[in-house]
Amino acid sequence: MGSSSTTGVYAISVAASMVSMEIQNLRVYERRGLVAPGRTAGGTRLYSSQDIETLHRIRELLAEGLNLVGIARVLELEAEVRRLRRRLAEDD
Questions:
Q1: 39-75 as b/e, with b when 16 or more CB fall inside 10 Å?
Q2: Residue 6 to residue 81: CA distance in whole angstroms
Q3: 13-41 pLDDT per residue, tens
Q4: Which residue of 39, 50, 59, 91 has the lowest C-beta tally within 10 Å?
Q5: What does DSSP assign to residue 7?
Q6: Looking at domain 12-91, which CATH architecture does it have?
């Protein structure tokens, strides 16, 4: 099983409430590949703490005027920066 920040624990209704979003928006973000919640054997979405952080970031970027395509690109670039920083830290 994954680390505690990546293990899905929050149902979609709880996740939506935590980030002040509508449930249908979370489904759209999943379809667009912006967030990838885990699933139970029965198919219920389970959002992790990391997913909640991503949803907060999506909300911030929406407030700044980005569309979903722009948000996807920003999230990709931010993930790449994190990977590069980890690699640099390992090289030290």
A1: eeeeeebbbbbbbbebbebbeebeeeeeebeebbebb
A2: 19
A3: 999 999 999 999 999 999 999 999 999 99
A4: 91
A5: S
A6: Orthogonal Bundle (1.10)
First to last CA, the chain: 30
- Residue showing tokens 């993930």: 79
Q: Are 9 and 48 in contact (CB under 8 A)?
A: yes
- Give the pTM: 0.88
Ramachandran class of 33: left when φ > 0, alpha when ψ lies in -120 to 50, beta otherwise:
left
Q: Any idea where the domains of the chain sit in the sequence?
A: 12-91
CB of 5 within 8 A of CB of 50? yes
Q: Per DSSP, what are the bridge partners of residue 32?
A: none
pLDDT in tens, 53-81: 999 999 999 999 999 999 999 999 999 99
